[in-house]
Each structure stands twice: as structure tokens, then as C-alpha cells.
Recover the amino acids of this structure.
């Protein structure tokens, strides 16, 4: 395919990625609240209490987005990915409350990663699969940053999708994908229990196990060392920086999901080169 066509397709998919990023902002904000409401409902039912009926149930589609400061309902013109943020200069049109920079960052990063997937893989099933993986990882990273949760409603379907795509060898063979899922889970599960036995504390959540298992299912067991190495380096660097800046204490939990997600994205595009490089250093 001519390079001009691929560039045009990458730009188009990048714009679609901006729109998907806008929707992912909704997922990041609302899905934990929906999970909390569901947990409260289940607990009330177990206690035999009446479950209150909400006048406007919270879903990913309803109600329409509002300013958290003044309740102003966001109009369509104010909800254009990235451009509305720039036009409004990062503030609510009604009360001038600042809009978090995380919203445009999520949109931009989703758009750029989506466009690069087209550039890297070309028009292929790998691109279609990579887009689904990118969007899921962006959502998981944002949710974990906000709530230290990695919802099963995303991680488990992501794992099965990885195995499904690798039935036809999209990124690796099925044998490597199954081993990747098993070893990815067991690796962090073992670290969790070793740390707990040694310190009596829980060093990470079960969602991290499932996320690494999902990445193993997508990319194969051969990429697990690169993912673990990259996520550990980035996580340790950020953690030390926060401690030095006194934004976090030594006992303040740091979500590991964003670093696993970032490492997964890097490995998706450059995993083979990274693996060859560190194997060359070791040998």
C-alpha cells in the first residue's frame, strides 16, 4: 500500500482515537462509581435491607456529563475531544472551574497510540487487535490511577480476547499465548505471597495479576520479562521521585496498573527489539 495512503489512514484512525479517548474518560470516571453502587446493592441484599431506587441510574451513557463543580450540563459543542478543552482554555464555561488536564491527555494519548498502531502494523488484523488493546490499557491505567482498582469487567475480557486473536497467530502462537497468561498470573501472584509472608503486608492487588496475565495472552510468554522489567523501572522511578518531592510517604500505596499498561504498550510495538537487546547484553 502506498505510504500516502497509510499516512491518511493513520490520521483518520488518530481522529477516531481522540473520540474514543473522550469516551474512555467517561469509562474512567463512571465505571468505578457503577461498581461501587453495585457492591452497595449486593451488600444491602445480603443484609436483608431494602435497596434504594435511584431516580437516575448511573450508566456509561446516562446521565449526560456535567461539571463536577457547578453541575452545568456539558453541551455537545463543549464536548469535542481536545478542541473544546483548548477553546474553553481548560475551564468550565459556566463557573470557570478548572478542567483536569487528565481529560485532554487521555484523548491525545489514545489518538496518538491509535495512529501509531496503523503506522506500525499497516492495514491488517494486527492493527484492529492493537487498537482494542490500546483502548483497554488506557482505560485501566486511568481507573487504577484514580481508584487503585483494575476492574474484572475489563481485564478478564481482555485476557480472553488475547487468546482469541492468537488463535490465528495475530501477535504470537496460541501455545505461547496460553503460557503467557498462566505465567503472567503466577509471576505476580508469587511475588504477592512472598512479600506478604516476609512483611505481613499486601504489596499489590489481584487486578495486577490479571492484567499481566492478559498481556501475556496478547503478546506471549516471551515478552513477559520485558513487560516486568519496563514496568518495574518506570514504577520505581516514579515512586522514588514522588517520595523525594514529598508527595507520597514510603507507606503510601502506588498503583502498579499504569506502569504495566505503559510497559504493555511499549512491548506491543518494540517488544522484539527490547528482547533482542537485553538478551544480547546478558550473553
Amino acid at each position: 500500500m502506498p505510504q500516502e495512503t497509510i499516512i491518511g489512514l493513520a490520521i483518520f484512525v488518530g481522529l477516531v482515537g481522540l473520540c474514543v479517548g473522550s469516551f474512555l474518560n467517561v469509562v474512567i470516571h463512571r465505571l468505578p462509581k457503577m461498581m461501587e453502587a453495585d457492591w452497595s446493592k449486593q451488600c444491602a441484599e445480603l443484609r436483608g435491607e431494602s435497596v434504594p431506587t435511584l431516580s437516575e441510574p448511573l450508566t456509561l451513557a446516562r446521565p449526560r456529563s456535567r461539571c463536577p463543580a457547578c453541575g452545568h450540563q456539558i453541551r455537545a459543542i463543549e464536548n469535542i475531544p481536545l478542541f473544546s478543552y483548548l477553546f474553553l482554555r481548560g475551564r468550565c464555561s459556566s463557573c470557570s472551574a478548572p478542567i483536569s488536564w487528565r481529560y485532554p491527555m487521555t484523548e491525545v494519548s489514545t489518538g496518538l497510540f491509535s495512529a501509531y498502531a496503523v503506522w506500525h502494523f499497516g492495514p491488517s488484523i494486527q492493527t484492529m487487535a492493537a487498537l482494542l488493546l490500546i483502548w483497554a490499557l488506557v482505560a485501566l491505567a486511568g481507573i487504577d490511577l484514580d481508584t487503585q482498582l483494575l476492574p474484572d469487567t475489563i481485564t478478564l475480557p481482555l485476557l480472553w480476547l488475547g487468546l482469541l486473536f492468537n488463535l490465528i497467530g495475530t501477535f504470537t502462537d496460541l501455545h505461547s499465548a496460553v503460557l503467557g497468561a498462566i505465567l503472567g498470573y503466577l509471576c505476580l501472584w508469587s511475588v504477592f505471597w512472598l512479600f506478604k509472608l516476609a512483611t505481613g503486608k499486601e504489596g499489590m492487588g489481584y487486578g495486577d495479576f490479571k492484567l499481566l496475565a492478559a498481556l501475556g495472552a496478547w503478546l506471549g510468554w516471551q515478552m513477559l520479562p520485558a513487560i516486568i522489567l519496563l514496568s518495574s523501572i518506570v514504577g520505581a522511578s516514579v515512586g522514588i521521585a514522588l517520595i523525594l518531592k514529598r508527595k507520597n510517604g514510603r507507606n503510601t500505596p502506588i498503583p502498579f496498573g499504569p506502569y504495566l499498561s505503559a510497559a504493555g504498550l511499549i512491548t506491543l510495538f518494540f517488544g522484539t527489539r527490547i528482547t533482542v537487546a537485553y538478551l544480547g547484553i546478558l550473553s
User: Anything to note?
Assistant: The chain has a mean pLDDT of 88. The chain has nine helices and no strands.
